[in-house]
Amino acid sequence: MPTEIRFGAFVREITLQQQQISYNNLTPKVWHAADGSEIPYRAPKIHLRWIDAYRLIQPYISSRLMEQVQAVVPLALYLVLFQIFVLQQGVTDAGLITGGLVAVILGLMFFIEGLKVGLMPFGEALGNTLPAKATLPVVLSIVFLLGIGVTFAEPAIGALKAAGQIVQIESAPYLYAMLNEWAEVLVLGVGIGVGAAAILGTLRLLNGWSLKPLIYLSLIPILALTVFMQFDPELSKTLGLAWDSGAVTTGPVTVPLVLALGIGIAAAAGKGQSSLSGFGIVTLASLFPILSVQLLALYLAFTTTPAEIIAAAAHAQQALEPAWYSQTPWLEIIAGLRAIVPLVLFLLLVMWLILKEKLPEPGQIAYGITLAVIGMIMFNLGLSYGLAKLGGQSGSLIPAAFTAIEAVTHSPLYSAILGLSLALLFAWLLGFGATLAEPALNALGLTVETLTNGAFRKSLLMYAVSFGVAFGIALGVAKIIFDLPLAWLLIPGYLFAVILTYLSSEEFVNIAWDSAGVTTGPVTVPLVLAMGLGVGNAVDAIEGFGILSMASICPIISVMLTGLWIRWKVNRKQRYYDQAPKHASTQGKPA
Q1: 202-229: per-residue pLDDT in tens?
Q2: 209 vs 127: CA distance, rounded Å
Q3: What is the value of pTM for the model shown?
Q4: What is the pLDDT of residues 482-526, one digit of tens each?
Q5: How far is CA 73 from CA 64, 66, 393, 520, in A?
Q6: Cβ atoms within 10 A of the Cβ of 17, count?
Q7: Do 445 and 461 meet the contact criterion of CB atoms below 8 Å apart?
């Protein structure tokens, strides 16, 4: 009887080319010494042609390079095209900006790869072994110090320092002092906030606390200080910086390292089995730095006066030339080393002195740390010459659409209503596109779809967050253009978010409050900050901060509203299925 086979299998068999090779032909010949002992085989070094080497590393590099190209190039093109076609202005220093953007792309590629290969193994090792070898107070102290260290290593933190050069000292003395003379203290204060958030987040994972009460308790002092500072004419100018600094902290260093440590500790203690493990730390790491910067502004106000700050700055400007280490490119190189090396030394000391463990795969970790340092230096240079320049330039030209500014002849270019509409539409599209392209949001969407069994789809979450950020950035730009008090935008927004938090389930609260953290990447933050400061300078606003803070609260609201709508739909469907059998049985009864 003939055997029937599939035609596809037949084609595969007749086209498959095989060559049998004896194993003995693959193994080296055994040589013996004069005494009869076997001589160990030493394989010769592999010599690759350059084309072979390229084929080996090309897939490795291209996938990592394309991630950063997709994050940087569309945003840069959008700003350039808007500037050329809508604002009818060329891009000044185009060659320098292009070189800076290339440095940003390469720097982020090296940095992220170094983070994964060199720094992330530290976080995982510490999280898994710390609870077994140290008491809880020691563990929490290390978590706190790590929170400070990762803040200094955050790429976008340099954008805050760069913003200090744009602020006018006469219009905002406290803000100028915090971003210049007190810049390192400011970053330390933000780091202390992240460290405190990491402690509370770890305790929450260990004890299974709900996130809702922690949000309420965190917002009470922050909103109270916001109201108090709003009524002080000088302190109110620092509110935008305080609220924006919360968005800067949740970047590619802080989130993975702190999460890896917190989840590792909770898992080692047998408390990390919940599907919501890991959610909440990002939220707290966004809120606590706001309080730290507010307290720093209050301390500055109590210890010095605006007149003293202006006098000290004038005296500093009359001083001799700045030292070599405070000039580019040495400034960026030293900043890159200072961001990574202390963090690595701290992790090494913990590994050797407390855990008494050897470094796993030291060669690989050294390679990763080297990549991270090189990447951070390149990113800092690209930030100075690329992102900050482009964002500041575009931001300073946007008001030409609706008002007269010196930099643009024949401005305003459009009528007031059309020009304002174009400016706000520009901001809306920038926020929407930048958020939708954020890789971290895509990862969060997959996690959320899994946790909610498909009820909250990845695409729905991504659009909810993107719409929220888009409206937030548009509101932030409107705040700068119309000189609106930031407190009167933030306080109603957060009070509405608190009401939605009370009405929402724990699952959606965790998702919504953490979604704000993934929207502020290392590319978006410097670009939006520089754009806001550029707009502020062009319209003679006192300060251009506040856009990032609005871009944080709006997605929280949009995601929770979407979550409530999904819950209503699920409950309605459930009620329908519950009532269907009753209705069928009623119809079947005789009249």
Answers
A1: 888 778 788 899 999 999 999 999 999 9
A2: 19
A3: 0.82
A4: 989 999 999 999 999 999 999 988 878 888 888 777 777 777 888
A5: 14, 10, 17, 17
A6: 4
A7: yes
